[in-house]
Amino acid sequence: MDLGTPTWYITYFYVIGVFSFALNLAVILLVIYKSESIDNFKYYILAFQVFCMLADFHISLLVQPMYLFQFMTYSCVGPAATYMWANYLLITTHLLLGIQYVLLFLCFARRHQAIAKIKQHHVIPEILFNSFIAFELACPVAACICYFYTGVEQEKVEGFIDQMYPDHKTELLSLQNYVIYRENTVYMIFFVIFKMLAGSLVFLLIALATLDMQKMLSPVRRKLSIQNYNHHKKVINSLLAQFAAVLVLLLPGLAFYTTRLYPYETGKWIVNITWCIFQSRSSINSLVLLASTPPYRNFLMRRLAGKREKVSTVVVSVHTRTGMN
């Protein structure tokens, strides 16, 4: 059984990692300098985008995890794996991704409250709102603590392999930096509970907030200028587009549940392809944000139009000089 990491897999992670980092950085600069018409909401978008960039940089360029599904094992082959145990790298990954979910919800919740205050309907007290956000942030932290303790301690790994996977001891011990997770433990159960609780609440509340915002927008239309009304509507559409893009986050989890139904080589292929798709989520999110947010889209269109005009001017100038000669 080959537990090695394919060369194409590592190459893809480096390529998508560099591309996503550059794209995320460009979007962050746009959010900072070209968000005059987005009011204070830009800070929530900025926080979400920063964590997208951090998560992508961490996973693609530093960790490069590979899931060996038959053994509930993660092998890390990135540069950071030289200096830090895989278990620490993976709980950091889970934490960054969990915070992404919460920040996306925060974007929806803040926009919902901005509209609710105009209509004076469904306004949530600030202390209750902040308490819920704190609870949502605590769930990924608690999940990561549980996840850490499901990992087999480094000094006990060899004995655990002798007990659980004796036929594959040589292959597993040949891995450079890996962590094996215990399946049927209290910590694993609580890890799943915390992840499911936080994830379900985020998705449910985003759906409810979206429906409520759509209902509230029509009655408050008379209280708002056309410009403000269109502004709120465009922000909601942009958030919905980003929410659809972030659904890519669910793909690895759904695919991993089915891998054990297949032979090892087929399951390994499914896992690797799934991780590659997963790593494109940040780039997709950035492109969706650029396409669905008018200030950023208009800025890019003006820049592209300006470059085309310069190229056209140079071409016309060259042709004119050629004709004169």
From TrEMBL:
SUPFAM superfamilies, A to Z: Family A G protein-coupled receptor-like
InterPro entries in alphabetical order: 7TM_GPCR_serpentine_rcpt_Sri
Keywords assigned: Membrane, Receptor, Transmembrane, Transmembrane helix
Membrane-spanning ranges: 12-32, 44-63, 83-106, 127-150, 186-214, 235-257
Domain of life: Eukaryota
PANTHER family associated with the record: G PROTEIN-COUPLED RECEPTOR-RELATED, SERPENTINE RECEPTOR, CLASS I
Designated name of the protein: G protein-coupled receptor
Organism: Caenorhabditis elegans
